[in-house]
Design a protein that fits this description.
Strand content: 25-35%
Largest sheet: 9 strands, mixed
Number of helices: 11
Shape: globular
Structural class: alpha+beta
Number of strands: 15
Helix content: 25-40%
Order of helices and strands: HEHEEHEEHHEEHEEHEHEEEEEHHH
Bound molecules: fructose -6-phosphate, magnesium ion
Length: 386
């Protein structure tokens, strides 16, 4: 392989909600155009190789390829500039929640922690490099826990884990604890039950990266930024993105899409405070309506070739997912009937980062303390800061 061919390509997917039309509904085309103009200029100058600008619901999505590696200050600054320009247009048009996710005034070397969500991977391109980019609206990064587990660890989902020798050794999961800022790497299939013990708590333990065990090749990466934890208050949900490599030693495209045929319940939806089914849709249906939802996910397939993005194909824009969408509607009907009751509404731990505490605060002085003739033992949930 020549030096040129060994050159690494970085795929960066960076997203932010910088304002939308008719509430938190849909990105305006003029804001996408403003962002695309900035990226086109960067491509002309050679900073990035290629880019694709799109949106899912109220989230503006920048997909970029370059040679600068992950966490590159130049690339992050470029994304920040694109969002700033798009937010300016949003303000000028009077769009709703203009600039919402841009939590800082000025850029400071990395967009992580400033509001946008980031998923990046650096790879040596295979002779043919198919990838899937997932982008979701009205949910959180932990929404990817279940599907990623199924793609990379469940033989009932991914036939290749059983019958393809290149997948047979299994995968490693890097699981990030968003409360504590620490991570653990666990192996599948050996430590499958430990993995599940963590990632079932999808609001806290999030699959951040997946590696192929046999050679440590990166297989998947997820944006794990949780806006509310960063801002300490409710600023919308952390609508996540993910990049997954496919085929020839990684799961096939069909194995990567398969878990989404089950519209599993995810946290988000109305006011970021409700569980609802994750509905896979094509780009034209990537907009939230009913009860500001239900949460949606888009999958775009690309070939990455010498850094160029060839595509996309809109993978969920397919009747093969019609029944999933129908089931998602039925689940939405069912769970909506719980109104403000759990388990439709999120549990108290998650509600800490919404506007509910303000309501409870108001009632503080109305509570009357009573003497009890017996002792009770109330166990607090496992502390965030043990
Ligand atoms: C959820 C979301 C929306 C809003 C809701 C209220 O992520 O963005 O469901 O929370 O529309 O929005 P505000 O408070 O802006 O009126
Ligand atoms: Mg939003
Ligand atoms: Mg959104």
């Amino acid at each position: 392989m020549s030096e040129k061919e060994k050159e690494k390509t970085t795929i960066s997917v960076i997203k932010a909600d910088i304002g939308s039309i008719a509430g938190h509904h849909k990105v305006h085309p003029d804001t996408m155009a403003a962002a695309a103009k900035i990226l086109a200029e960067a491509k002309r100058k050679g900073l990035i190789i290629d880019f694709y600008v799109t949106h899912v619901g109220d989230d503006l999505e920048l997909i970029m390829t370059h040679r600068k590696g992950v966490d590159s200050p130049e690339i992050h600054e470029l994304a920040w500039e694109a969002f700033k320009k798009a937010a300016e247009v949003a303000r000028e048009l009077g769009l709703y929640a203009a600039g919402q996710d841009l939590l800082a005034e000025a850029f400071s070397g990395n967009v992580r922690g400033l509001g946008p969500g980031v998923a990046e991977m650096e790879i040596v391109e295979r002779p043919s490099e198919p990838i899937v980019i997932f982008m979701a609206d009205k949910t959180e990064p932990g929404a990817f826990n279940l599907p990623l587990f199924r793609i990379f660890a469940d033989p009932f989902n991914t036939a290749g884990l059983v019958i393809d020798p290149r997948l047979h050794d299994g995968f490693k999961f890097e699981i990030y604890d968003v409360y504590e800022g620490r991570y653990v790497v666990l192996n599948a299939p050996e430590e499958m039950y430990d993995i599940l013990a963590l990632i079932g708590t999808q609001g806290r333990y999030i699959i951040r990266r997946v590696y192929r065990k046999s050679d440590n090749e990166i297989a998947a990466v997820v944006s794990v930024e949780r806006l509310n934890l960063i801002a300490g208050r409710y600023v919308g949900k952390d609508d996540p993105v993910a990049i997954v490599r496919a085929q020839s030693g990684f799961p096939a495209i069909g194995e990567i899409l398969e878990p989404f045929a089950f519209p599993h319940l995810v946290a988000g939806w109305m006011r970021g405070s409700h569980f609802g089914p994750l509905m896979p849709v094509g780009l034209r249906d990537a907009k939230c309506t009913r009860f500001d939802g239900p949460p949606r996910i888009v999958a775009l397939g690309f070939q990455v070739s010498k850094g160029r993005l060839i595509g996309p194909v809109d993978l969920f824009d397919d009747p093969a997912f019609d029944e999933t969408r129908r089931l998602a509607q039925q689940v939405a009907d069912y769970i909506r009937r719980h109104g403000p009751f759990m388990p439709h509404r999120l549990g108290p731990e998650e509600m800490e980062y919404t506007t509910l505490p303000q309501v409870l605060e108001k009632l503080q002085n109305r509570f009357v303390k009573e003497e009890r003739r017996y002792k009770v033992h109330v166990k607090k949930p496992s502390s965030h800061s043990e």
